[in-house]
UniProtKB/TrEMBL annotation:
Residues 164-217 form the PAC domain. It is an enzyme of class 2 (transferase). It catalyses: ATP + protein L-histidine = ADP + protein N-phospho-L-histidine. This is histidine kinase. Keywords: Kinase, Membrane, Phosphoprotein, Transferase, Transmembrane, Transmembrane helix. SUPFAM superfamilies: PYP-like sensor domain (PAS domain). GO terms for molecular function: protein histidine kinase activity. It comes from the Bacteria. Its EC number is 2.7.13.3.
Length: 224
């Protein structure tokens, strides 16, 4: 059974807005109508002072409980969505490990890319997860592939393309360029629908490119 899409996770501002509006409406209604009721039933000025004090205590306790319940519900919903996402990512990592694909995780706001152990190995690094700025990754991209990659990636982020898929060359620590096929998709958006996070895979296709005569492995010197 395919995974159902995750609902958009509200931003902190959007999560707080209904809480603030409900609190304001409750406070206004309490002030207006409670005073009217007290004015009808309480005529003694001394007793009126005591009742007003009690009314204030009831208001503080009642609104505190209401805010606690609403905030708790909002955080519980966020925790539930996060747990669903973590379970899906765990299943994905197991499947990728079995197929030899490397996983990358791009955070749009911070412009950082995180790699799993297999992706790190493909990039010529020790097999351990690591994170780096996107600019560092772009610096390893073959000069001839940078603009085509940027265009495809931008088209996908801005909704002009339904999927992200690209083939490009990346420089290895030993100075060679290897071919990779990469696909990915947006997995998290903000309340306005703008992408926050993408997850995708790497596949080393150097052998396929070499067999097809497409310069499967090039040294850095050959590109200058």
């Amino acid at each position: 059974m395919p995974n159902s899409p995750l609902p958009v996770l509200p931003s902190p501002a959007m999560l707080a807005l209904p809480v603030a509006l409900i609190y304001a409406a409750f406070a206004v209604a309490w002030i207006v109508y409670s005073d009217q009721v007290i004015g009808i039933w309480v005529r003694d000025p001394d007793r009126l002072t005591d009742v007003q004090t009690l009314k204030g205590i009831v208001f503080v306790v009642g609104t505190a409980l209401m805010l606690w319940a609403m905030v708790r519900r909002g955080y519980a919903r966020q925790a539930e969505l996060q747990e669903v996402l973590l379970r899906r990512e765990a299943r994905l990592r197991i499947a990728l490990r079995a197929t030899g694909l490397g996983l990358w995780d791009y955070l749009v706001e911070s412009r950082e890319v995180e790699y799993d152990e297999e992706a790190a190995r493909m990039l010529g690094r020790p097999p351990a997860a690591f994170r780096e700025p996107a600019e560092v990754w772009l610096g390893r991209l073959h000069p001839d592939d940078r603009e085509p990659f940027r265009q495809r990636f931008r088209d996908y982020l801005e909704g002009r393309s339904e999927q992200y898929a690209s083939e490009f060359r990346l420089a290895m620590p030993n100075g060679e360029f290897r071919w990779f096929s990469s696909v990915g998709q947006i997995v998290d958006r903000d309340a306005q629908g703008l992408p926050l996070r993408l997850i995708g895979t790497y596949l080393d296709i150097t052998g396929r490119r070499r067999s097809s005569g497409s310069n499967g492995v090039l040294s850095v010197e050959h590109t200058t």
